[in-house]
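Let us practice reading a record.
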Amino acid sequence: MTCKEKRQQRQDEREIKTFFDIILGKAKLATHEPSKKIPQSNRIGGGATVEEQEELSRQYIRLLGVLLPGIIALISRINDPRNQKRITHSLPVLILYGLLIFLCHIPSRRAANREIGGSELADLIETFVPDFKSIPHADTLERLLGGISVDELEEQYSAVLFEFVKSDEFRELNPGRFIVAADGSEKFSRDYCWDSRTLSRNAGDPDKEQYYAYMMESVLILPNGMVLPLLTETMENGENLDGNGKQDCESKAFKRLATRLVKLFGKGCVTILLDGLYATGPIISLCESYGWEYMISLKKDCLTSVWEDFDGLRKIESDNMLEAMCGERHQEYNWSNNIEYTYGGNHKYLKLNVVTCKEQWHEKSPRKCKPVLRVNEFAWLSSSKITADKVIELCKTARSRWRIENHFHVAKHQGYSYEHCYSYNWDAMKGYHYLMKFAQFINTLILSSQLMCEYVKAEGKKWAIEKIWSFLYYHVLSSFCSSEILPKPQATICRSRFRFRELKLCVA
């Protein structure tokens, strides 16, 4: 008898025994209470009437007119290497077309040709770009991004971020420190090397070599829940390949990213949130040299000497403990300050502050009658000295690092096609990535405005974008574009100032 037949025989015996136990009254069938979920609307249109979709689209277009003209004006400053006498589509037209791909949540170049080319969006493009003649082909945009300097495109995105961060509206949203989270994320991988700058891995098997594109991302976390994409550092071989032949990695990329973040925010006003991969001496020293505060996750198998000292001090420092309740969860905090740590060949010296949080709560299990005890444990390295009156706030800030994971989820699975390869040309791939960041920045600000938040709270951001653009695809925009909702086409492309005040962003 084979193993599969034996397993099947044992399963049949268990089912027969259970059947007879129920018949004889030795066992009872368990009943479970249905989950108490909010009932969803069952009407056609996903919960919005045609009038509501029209009003939603009208407000979206009006707010788009606040941001797009300045962005197009900035990007139009990029050097266009094409022969201007032989081109059909100007640089602003192609950039706006590329932004629409991600604003509309279009998943590929082929889909862009089908959906944008067969829609009524020509009126919208003509409103923002006066010299518009016809909707371009997606391959035309791909050739442009492969020929221009994508570094200039990223510089213009940094300029937009700088304008927003220095605005009075941002200060109202974020009066305190800049909460920045950074982490790496894979874009896509292939079984063959399509460019010499790709990273490679084989998991110990040279016959299973994989080549992939990897990005170091940073986001800005605001108190009202907004998460704005900040700067991106592409990990690539070539210039970043060191003399020992080692590939680029997250640690090297973070050092380059940190240099750029200092130029954007300055020194001494940033709180950086990182995962356990960055709990190393060089990264901590870099953050301290910039005057940044930090909260870095600390794993059990990382910095063993620090863990040994912490476990020993916890037995002595009995006062460094606090118990609290967070809803129905019991939390126990333990901490120790000024733990000595040395690293490197020169024995560089650091003093580290460590805090742990043990969280316990009871959770109903569908398979058991009694609630099940759940336990979570967290640990962080903190730049600030930990005391009983601020340990909860520090740990709350550290746990907001999950927002960058949520940001990755939105970018990958909720319309922005983060993991899609729009081009195998390395520079064009990066260009599409920066256009995606522009679009995500625009959509995040618009959907966080007071005019849109009611719809977004009811159905979600992805739903709102889909409903808006599905309405705009097949409805004539002349009524929107000819009214006072948008500025006149002649003045649109020349203006590079942003009117963030008109967005009326939700503070909380």
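A brief commentary: Residues 50-150+423-503 form one domain.
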